[in-house]
Design a protein that fits this description.
single chain, mainly alpha, Arc Repressor Mutant, subunit A, 2 domains, two-stranded antiparallel sheet, 6% strand, Tscrpt_reg_HTH_GntR, DNA-binding transcription factor activity, transcription
Length: 141
């Protein structure tokens, strides 16, 4: 089993807290002091974890207001990752192939040749398709 760092453990605990307290995109996260006490870690450790989450685009900070849960689906991090992950024409073609497989699956599932992935009710499938599209566009930019 892979060992996690203290930072990874705290990030996971913050994720679990967000889930448990049903914090939604745009809503404020608990204060650093609350997180420190709840997670039984130092305030510096909480700050380090929050900085990591901010760099990943999972949260954002408004000075004087607090820390909020971000809408990661629209974060530019995906384009940046895409530029590093998809470096060859072959990888680009593989991304396109996977996108087409998803599109064909949705059409077959519904028996509708014109149905879009975005009309399907599978939210995870939609997110994967959007992510692949972002990676594909990052390669072409």
């Amino acid at each position: 089993m892979e060992e996690r760092t203290g930072l990874e453990h705290i990030v996971e605990q913050i994720h679990n807290l967000v889930e448990a307290e049903n914090i939604q995109v745009g809503e404020k996260l608990p204060s650093e002091r609350y997180l420190k006490d709840k997670l039984n870690v130092s305030r510096q450790s909480v700050r380090e974890a929050l900085r990591a989450l901010e760099l990943l685009g999972i949260i954002y900070v408004r000075r004087g207001e607090g820390t909020f849960l971000a809408d990661i689906d629209n974060h530019q991090l995906f384009q940046l990752i895409g530029k590093y992950l998809i470096r060859t024409k072959r990888q680009q073609d593989e991304i396109i192939e996977i996108k087409e497989m998803i599109e064909n699956h949705v059409r077959a599932k519904h028996g509708d040749r014109d149905m879009s992935v975005y009309d399907d009710d599978n939210q995870i499938l939609k997110k994967i398709h959007v992510l692949l599209d972002k990676y594909s566009r990052a390669f072409n930019s």
